[in-house]
Structures
1.
Amino acid sequence: MKLPVYLYGHPVLRKISTPIEPGYPGLEQLISDMFAAMYESQGVGLAAPQIGRNIRLVVIDADPVAEEFPECSGRKLVLINPEVEILEGEDISRSEGCLSLPGISENVPRVENIRLRWLDQNFEAHEELISGFLARIVQHECDHLDGKVFIDHISAIRRQLIKGKLNNIVTGRAKVDYPVRWAPTAKRR
């Protein structure tokens, strides 16, 4: 099943997601479908709200960026009910994009070191210190679970400068080459 990516302006992206309990119906297939949607969209991460589900589920395959960021090599993760603990350190700004905000990338300040606690697809608990760009990917995806998108971390001036691009997404005029679900206000669906 091809899952569309929900675009900026859709209310599902602003809701806080609920935890997943063991026995969640169709979880294995949902995880498989999320990976397929992520690969089709050429992303490295996808959170359940981005496919219209307000549950605490994230899939990540950071291997495509491993050449530039070695800490991402071989990192394919399923995160159920993830918890991110920000560790000490200064914020580093790096460019981020998002499948839900096509055509937009901005420098976003984030810490480079986190402690991540999560359950895998078998509901086995994990805890790991994660650094570098992989930590950025995890923070970005986990933000979606709390109803946030990366532009929430940029200055008001930068948001004003990209207002036209955001409006194009909300109204259905953005160019997107993967299956999407437009905001209810979009003219095309």
Note: DSSP finds four helices and nine strands in the chain.
2.
Amino acid sequence: MTPNLDIKPDIKISVNQSFGINTDMLVDGFSKKNEYVPEIDKNYKFDRDTTLAILSGFAFNKRILIQGYHGTGKSTHIEQVAARLNWPCVRVNLDSHISRIDLIGKDAIEIKDNKQVTEFKEGMLPWSIQNPVALVFDEYDAGRPDVMFVIQRVLESDGTFTLLDKNKVLKQNKFFRLFATTNTVGLGDTSGLYPGTQQINQGQMDRWNIVTTLNYLDFDKELEIILAKNKNLNNIKGKEKVSNMIKVASLTRKGFMAGDISSVMSPRTIIHWAENSEIFKDMGYAFRITFLNKCDDLEKTIIAEYYQRCFGEDLPESTVNIKI
């Protein structure tokens, strides 16, 4: 990655026009996009409160933490805001394999003038803070302690970053922005739904300027999204099918929150289910290959019951005569 420190926001974007929120607020954006700007999903539906929180992060350089159940679209929400601002955006998943070295950088051997030389290669964090980039940490509450303390250094909006390996102090680019998504609120997994998450020390939590919660979409918005992605179903019969699909998804979410099942259907899963149902012309078979086959065997009976309650028919054990 080659830092480009010269670009900066050069236009004002109307929040009302771009995000459909009734406000006179204008946000800085870029007139041109580069390779790090996410693609725009024209059918994306923005949650008002979450959108305003994210926009405040871009407009006022606030550190934004978005909490919510998985599958609610937390990271996608940040990406779609960035896409409409043409703001470069990079996501890093803080799973257990991400180490301090991955974030900061490491020595690497290169060939120069036909000779092997050892040079320090900056990691994602030093590169990001020197650029007008929105850096998003996914699964923030799953990060290793040594990684979390590295991140803590840049949580202050004007905080510098000391690169010990190069005896160098890095200043944050004026348009560097920092976001994170998390399943918990820094208190660890008190529900038993997210094993592997960690408690985040309060000194670090206090450095996040805004914490917002993103829940699943309401029924009408979800229906609108699914139909926009599957236009062949935008008719009376199709709407009835999609409505029942959303009802199944809602039952999985309630079951997940209650601890009855460990898998949950996101809006993306419903979109895939709808697409597969159009391919195979079989709702039950499409449900099985899209979602049920990913679930724990011990929970499949419960999930099949959800299907039966919404569609009024048992989920068949096997489906024959698939029409492609």
Note: Confidence is low (pLDDT under 50) at residues 186-197.
3.
Amino acid sequence: MERLIHERLKVWKDSPNRKPLMLFGARQVGKTYALKEFGRREFDNLVYISCDRRDGLPELFEKGQDVQRLVLRLSSWAGQAITPGKTLLFLDEVQETPAAITCLKYFCEDMPDLHVAVAGSLLGVKNMQKSSFPVGKVDMLHMYPLTFDEFLLAMERAPLYELLKEGDRDSLNALRAEYEELLRQYYFVGGMPEAVVSFVRDRNPIAVRRIQKSILNAYEADIAKHAGRDTLRVHMVWQSLPSQLGKENKKFIYGVIKQGARAREFESALQWLVDAGLLLRVPRIKCPEQPMRAYEDPAAFKLYLLDVGLLGAMSGTPAKNMLIGDGVFSTFYGSFTENYVLQQLLSLDDVPVYYYSKENSRLEIDFLTQIGEDILPLEVKAGVNVRSQSLKTFVEAYRGKGVGRGIRFSLLGFQEQDWVENIPLFAVRDEIKRKVDASWPAIPPA
């Protein structure tokens, strides 16, 4: 299975300023597979060590200040040579051995030629003492479920993937029906690798839904195992998500969890789920100005699930409703479509995502991002009814004041108007990536 993060890993490998790499993401999104495949394809040898082992492995890292000796011990442990410049040393489940995370500082300082990559849960890192975390000594990447582009590759539809990369709009408009059929399948299957592999192999929606429910059950077990005193509250937040997304207004409401619930009761439980990578948090900004983070409203936000396929399983949406006809695009007040769009945006580098709503008004913009010098308002339309009064009002009010032309994602083909550009839903990631790439200034050679 081809993962697009491979190209970003190659950039890390060849960087002259490379530091040890930390790859984070929710369980079962494919971190281990991606790093193992990267090691096999790009290095002479891969040394894989899982840090959840307890038979003496933690002790090897606890005295890891002497990196030469540590590498010798790890080489003996793995039964393989570890050679700087030729070996990828991959430490998996690193959150289970905090001393291994601390040792990344020494790898950075004393053996920078050795390629070291670690994978694990962000939760373990969040719980580390600040004095132990190798601040400034690591590079970090976040990994998500498969994007729609990666799904096309997995489905052996490479020509359709290449057309998206090229951005030939006439050809893409002509092939809309084919892309939309595959998009329906992606909404149902989602991007969890196990579900995708099953669907590619058997085209059996029953087997896919069984896998999705198994993954959700594993997440529930993780909550019970790791959430500690917050376990009950974390469960309640988690179980409330379909109801939250089933509202026309997607702003997170604590009262949906239980009657009379307040932020102070559940904010740490909510943050646990975000840190675990299970929920995606989109903050509200009060004013569409740069830097957007300075105008963030900490009390208002939207929450989405890490994967649109898991959302279908969690909400109990029948497979028939998702795979046949266009109903899936508007189900749940378009929640599947918003969840899908957010996943594609977050898979890109340096694309911050917020939303905007005006005080004492119904005006709301689904998402905003900053590309180059412009804040771009993004509206998500789940079908072909694309009336965009909020978007038009917003663009007219703020265009020329740091806000660029609006972008609307819908089932329509590519269209251009003075105030808005329509982008088909199947092309979200590639078109936004194209805009990001074009926004970087050309730097003349020295």
Note: Residues 280 and 304 are 5 Å apart (CA to CA).
